[in-house]
Amino acid sequence: MRQIALVGAAITQEELLEIGAEWELWSLNNLFGQFPDVHFDRWYELHVFQRHNNRYIRRGVDTYGARSVWQYMHAIADLRIPVYMQKEWAIIPQSIKFPFKEIIKEYGSYFGCSFAWMMAHILWENAHNKDIDSLIEKIGFFGIALEGIEYFYQRPSTEYFIGLARGMGIDIYIHNSSKLLRGGYLYAYKENFDEIGLNHGEIMRILMHTVGAAYQQIVRDVYERLTI
């Protein structure tokens, strides 16, 4: 039986290196740059890639982080591990077409982030795996904060699939660097009314920050697309 550690950006390399060898490490996008001394077992890059005028483009632009998309794809290939993508790319020999349609047919279309897709992929693989010894019995969340901008549209669908996984008998571990399945207070059963007021103020602060950050991101996206 297997244990899968889903790794996000909110964990430190020291914490990541302390994860036991019994865990398979899965991560996504360009996070390998944060953890150069860590060997991962599987990678996910589920966004749209295109080739346009001899340039590789990801999500409508030809740069990602501090490098060109072409350089980024070569860096993914250098991981030399399975990489799930929307299609196979010759530039990434280990790329595997992700089963979007099959997963949607089985689990619906409520996906707000890549981690939700990764969770659904685990459930789908378990459901179609006839080898009992290779079934996934535990999923750990390490460094997956999903707060701020991500809190409002990414966290809920991830928590939805955590619930599905628990309902299917899969054990869930959530590292203290994650805000998943953590509320400000225990509604109705244990309520501190002074704390509730403070929590509401914190929610408004996060909301205002999120709106401002989302506006800045929209402006950046529009500018990048106009300058392609």
Overview of the structural elements:
This protein is α/β, with parallel strands linked by helices and 228 residues long. It folds into 2 domains: 2-46 and 98-182, Rossmann fold, CATH 3.40.50; 185-228. It contains 7 helices and 11 strands. The strands form 3 sheets. The protein has a 7-stranded parallel sheet, with helices on one face. Strands 4-5 form a two-stranded antiparallel sheet. Strand 6 and strand 7 (67-68) form a beta hairpin. The longest helix is centred in the C-terminal third of the chain and has 34 residues, at 193-226. It is globular. The mean pLDDT is 87.
Largest sheet: 7 strands, parallel
Q: Output mean pLDDT.
A: 87
How big is the Rg? 19 Å
Strand order of the largest sheet: 9-8-3-2-1-10-11
| Total domain units | 2
Give a topology summary.
Layout: E1 2-7, H1 13-17, E2 23-28, E3 42-44, E4 49-52, E5 55-58, E6 63-64, E7 67-68, H2 69-77, E8 83-85, E9 95-97, H3 100-107, H4 114-127, E10 136-142, H5 149-153, H6 155-167, E11 171-174, H7 193-226
Parallel strand pairs: 1-2, 1-10, 2-3, 3-8, 8-9, 10-11
Antiparallel strand pairs: 4-5, 6-7
Helix pairs in contact: 3-4, 4-6
Structure at a glance:
The chain has 228 residues and is of the alpha/beta class.
Features:
39% helix; 2 domains; alpha/beta; two-stranded antiparallel ribbon; Rossmann fold; 228 residues; seven-stranded parallel beta sheet; single chain; 11 strands; globular
